[in-house]
Design brief:
alpha+beta, 4 strands, about 50% helix, elongated
Length: about 140
């Protein structure tokens, strides 16, 4: 039932989609502590790193990060599904949230946006592979 409601809210209620993003952001702020040593930011080497291209049900996701001062300062999603209106709508909402949360947390410890769980899994995996390259 929850999947149906999420799908309805995402695709038929444009105003609700914006509030879902805000809810995800506030949820992330409440749980700002990284959950694992692999997502700690203190041991990253400055530079730009491209994560692995991660295949998911809807296509591939790949991110590129910039590390400055040992922290993530920029995240770009360089490859993501955009073949149809559904992909475009989901990713136009989810990817900016994932990118900003990654910079804010300086880690791959980010919350999923409702309706974009598969993209979230692939994004986190590609981000973590970039962070693994940046480890000291």
């Amino acid at each position: 039932m929850a999947v149906f409601i999420d799908g309805y809210l995402l695709f038929f209620k444009k105003n609700t989609a914006a509030s879902l993003t805000n809810t995800s952001t506030s949820t992330t702020a409440a749980s700002s502590q990284p959950s694992s040593a692999s997502s700690q930011s203190s041991s990253y080497t400055n530079g730009s790193y491209t994560g692995n291209s991660v295949s998911m049900r809807w296509g591939n996701v790949q991110v590129k990060i910039t590390i400055t001062g040992g922290k993530i300062t920029k995240v770009q999603t360089i490859d993501y599904p955009q073949d149809n209106n559904h992909d475009q709508q989901v990713n136009s909402m989810a990817l900016p949230t994932y990118e900003s949360e990654s910079v804010k947390n300086s880690s791959s410890n980010i919350q999923a946006v409702s309706g974009a769980t598969e993209t979230w899994k692939a994004f986190k995996s590609s981000l973590q592979s970039a962070l693994n390259q940046a480890k000291v």
